[in-house]
Design goal:
The complex is a heterodimer. Chain A is mostly beta strands. Chain A is built from no helices and ten strands. Chain A is globular and about 40 Å long. Chain B is an all-beta fold. In chain B, strands 2, 5, 6, 10, 11 and 12 form a six-stranded mixed beta sheet that branches. A four-stranded antiparallel beta sheet of chain B has the order 3-9-8-7, with no helix packed on it. Chain B has a two-stranded antiparallel sheet with strand order 1-4. In chain B, a hairpin with a 4-residue loop joins strand 8 and strand 9. In chain B, 35% of the residues are buried. The chains are: A mainly beta, B mainly beta. Chains A and B meet through strand 4, strand 5 and strand 9 of A and strand 5, strand 6, strand 10 and strand 11 of B.
Chain lengths: 114, 114
């Protein structure tokens, strides 16, 4: 079946502009995660959605970052007034609640802020 | 707080030689442990996972890992490396809540020489 998809695959933006990154999870997966991967670094947790519960936003680095998810479907990560330090690969993962907790990752969106 | 240490940033192994990638974790209870692999431009793929039971776990692509509670380690091994194994490898730890996020190490880049 289809895996996690993300769009765009690459995004170049100017400093100060807003960007939206999209994640389509695997159908039926109730949990969705966003991570940031800076060059040479591990994955940094940003935000977690579980069904209709309030999202866990504890990893968002600043109020310029926000994310939405409608039910158990698509999620959008928005970065406002982008800064050069926002340049990174943004990875989305989904998980089927009740399974052995494996997260399935999308290919990521590479964001470059010039 | 949970944490993961991968002490080797880069490792070079000759094709056909054995491989061991190190991972040490810090977690207040019995952890869930994972190894993921990331090929260039790709998302993360799960190699194997440990939740309970047998401390030696088998994964895909001929990989295995051993959970050693006394050493807080979960090292990844492969008896004979293939050129296609060249990639970045991430160790991750999670908790029993089922909804917890994963904490990732910074990764080890594996280079395979002919």
């Amino acid at each position: 079946g289809a895996g996690v998809s993300q769009s765009p695959s690459n995004k170049v933006t100017e400093k100060g502009k807003d960007v939206e990154l999209r994640c389509d999870p695997i159908s039926g997966h109730t949990a969705l995660y966003w991570y940031r991967q800076r060059l040479g670094q591990g994955l940094e947790f940003l935000i977690y959605f579980q069904g209709n519960s309030a999202p866990d936003k504890s990893g968002l680095p600043s109020d310029r970052f926000s994310a939405e998810r409608t039910g158990e479907s698509v999620s959008t990560l928005t970065i406002q007034r982008t800064q050069q330090e926002d340049s990174a690969v943004y990875l989305c993962a989904s998980r089927l609640t009740g399974d052995t907790y494996e997260q399935y990752f999308g290919p990521g969106t590479r964001l470059t802020v010039t | 707080a949970q944490s993961v240490t991968q002490p080797d940033i880069h490792i070079t192994v000759s094709e056909g030689a054995s491989l061991e990638l190190r991972c040490n974790y810090s977690y207040g209870a019995t952890p869930y442990l994972f190894w993921y692999v990331q090929s260039p431009g790709q998302g993360l793929q799960l190699l194997l996972k440990y939740f309970s039971g047998d401390t030696l776990v088998q994964g895909i692509k001929g990989f295995e890992a051993e959970f050693k509670r006394s050493q807080s380690s979960f090292n990844l091994r492969k008896p004979s490396v293939h050129w296609s194994d060249a990639a970045e490898y991430f160790c991750a730890v999670g908790g029993y809540s089922g909804y917890s996020t994963l904490t990732f190490g910074k990764g080890t880049m594996l280079l395979v020489s002919p």
